[in-house]
Amino acid sequence: MLGFTAVTILAWFVVVVAAGVLRGRFFGLFAAVMLGVHSASAVALYPYFEWCWPAYLWLHGAVFLHFGSLIWARMRPLPWRLVVTMPGMFFAAAMILAVPWSVAVAVGFDPWAPWLPFALAAVGLLQSVTLSSEEIDVRLDGEVVAARGVSRHPRGASGEGRTLRIVQITDPHLGPFMSVSRLRSICERAVSREPDLILLTGDFLTMESQQDPEDLERALEPLAKAKGRVFACFGNHDHEAPDIVRGACSAHGITLLVDEEATLDTKAGPVQILGADFVYRDRAGHLEALAEKYPRRDGHLRVILLHDPGAFRHLPEGHGDIVFAGHTHGGQIGLVSLGLPWTFVSGLSSMPDHGLWARGRDRLYVHRGTGHYGFPLRLGVPAEESLVTLWLDG
Q: pTM for this one?
């Protein structure tokens, strides 16, 4: 036990110092916190898993190898991801989930079911590498929702009227769990559904995919077959390498709207698409200025691309027939897989986390995301690969 603890402390020190010196103070601090939480739980629970110490050591080491590799971040080949990244993220997620168990050990209790965090992380790993196809009907009936603020809203059902078929791809986060080939396949399937519009609502990148511009360009290549029908906006992570996103979109005829508008004719009638940039401060002022610069066009369905659903409440009322957002990864941790709407995001904030929301006549659809980032895994909130059919009354 003392040997395991000493080796863990040494590994933490080496990776954190190297991260701070070679990549910068911010990443060093990030590594210190994440690996610190991980290490504390791993040391506390080690006595309960000493019977399988080779596997425990391998998984524990994979976490440090993964974080160490991020000092020289780049897209890694499949063998590395299978042997290091995915096992490491599984173990790191289990150790974060195991914090209550490690606290119990620290205060002298014998924790109940120490295997449970590993079981939950295994489910999360499966949900992080799979996608399920969905078809969703959303009726835009113009009903005024009287509830104060932004509220969940029923999607409605298919029926009679004009339709607009839309595939949204958001938060692919090209990186450890989203390879170039996997994102290419997602784009190929999007095109094969022959939608009227394909909407990309940001966060294309992670630190691993910011090194080689060709990675995102190759991943988005299938969308060139839908040229003229593909529109995109920036997410927060895209501001870390905006030229890469601009270049990939330009290479394949994807219209990137950064506080800009586009119009097109569809079988459902003319559509005005407004793409909002991601901003951190004064979101209300930003969206008010954008709405003033690009007012409603008569007779057009008004579609807004807004990466951050938390900004929806700042959009001037009446300016978004339908707003498409992402950013939350659907809440990433929650009970959606059990048919319940609760997620970590909705539990801790008022931000719309997934599905359809309403304010007045405006509607917001929050996509659960194609990939994920931040917390190592999804858990209880599956990734989304959907075809949304908008039913337009009148």
A: 0.95
